[in-house]
Amino acid sequence: VLLAGEVWVHHLYVAGMPDWLRIGQMVTTLLISVPVGLMVVSLWGTLYKAAFTFNMALWYAAACLLLLLIGGLTGIPLAVTVLTVNLSETAFVHAHFHFVMALFATFAIFAGIYYWFPKMTGRLADGKLAMLGFWLNVIGVNLTFWPLFMVGVQGMPRRYYGYAPWPEFAPYHYVATIGALIIAVGMVVTIVNWIYSAINGRKAETNPWRSQSLEWTHCPNPPGPGNFPTDVTVSEEWSPYNYAR
Question: pTM of the full predicted structure?
Answer without folding.
Answer: 0.86
